[in-house]
Each structure stands twice: as C-alpha cells, then as structure tokens.
TrEMBL record:
GO cellular component assignments: cytosol
Gene3D superfamilies: 3.30.450.40
Residue span, GAF domain: 26-159
GO molecular function annotations of the record: L-methionine-(R)-S-oxide reductase activity
Taxonomic superkingdom: Bacteria
InterPro entries per UniProt: FRMsr_CS, GAF, GAF-like_dom_sf, Phosphatase_reg/MetRdx
Stated family: Belongs to the free Met sulfoxide reductase family.
Lineage, uppermost ranks: Bacteria, Pseudomonadati, Pseudomonadota, Gammaproteobacteria, Chromatiales
Database matches in Pfam families: GAF
Organism whose genome encodes this protein: Abyssibacter profundi
Name recorded for this polypeptide: GAF domain-containing protein
Amino acid sequence: MSYATLPASLDELPAQARALVAGESNRIANLANVAALVFHALDDVNWVGFYLRDEVCNELVLGPFQGKPACIRIPWGRGVCGTAAATATVQRIADVHAFEGHIACDPDSRSELVIPLIDQGDVVGVFDLDSPTIDRFSERDAQVLAAVAAVLDTAVKTV
C-alpha cells in the first residue's frame, strides 16, 4: 500500500493507518501521519487531530493535527473531547452548538466526532474530527474511525 495513495473508500482507512504505523513506535510520528491521512482522505472536515492526556494536571493537551490552530488545553470532562475522555465513550455530535459546554476552538465547526484512545484500559487521549457541516459524521464513520484509533491504541506505546 502506497503512503502517497489515499484510500479509495472509507473502509480502507484502518488498513492504510496500520501500514503507516507499521514498524514505528514513536507516538508523535504515528499520530501526525494518521491525522494527515484522515484529513486528506475525508471530505468535508476542517480539523483532524489528537489531544493527549497530561496526567499531572488531568487535562487533554493538543497533539498532532491538520487544520486551523486549535485550543491547547481542554479540561478533563469538559466539552466534547473532555467528555469522550472522561467517559471513555465515542461522542458523535450532530450540532456542537447544541452541546452543553461545547468549547468553540473554531466557530466554523458544526459537527464533531471524538474517539477515546485507550491503552491498557486507560484513556491516554482522544482522536478528534470536526466538520463545518451539521451531522457530517455517520455511525459508519464512527465505526471505521474507531478502527483507525484501535490501530493506534495497539501500536503506540511510547513517546
């Protein structure tokens, strides 16, 4: 599988992500490549990236991403990302402006999909996708992108 070739369908994303991280244990390198892959493979997204857990202050801190500059720190349990982290559940939000406590890093974002990154049962970060379109992310998107996140969960162990 060529890294220069984008997946022809959504279903190819997990395999492409697996190929990108194969043989590489550096967390930042893998997250950066997967953010770029997904950002360029999906239509109608304006931000794709990762927030990583800072255990000292129990916040999510901005990691590798594609898109406009973003919020640097998100409190655990706050906003869509913080809720996904605190509950260890996928958050698929059709209209972020209707989500109580939403943190508006980019006012152009209208819908959001956030998938917790789990390592040995602990949330170590989140995989965050934003779109300028209401209800952009389907349940199928959530399933496939969770499979992409699972590639990282098992392949990424060190910084």
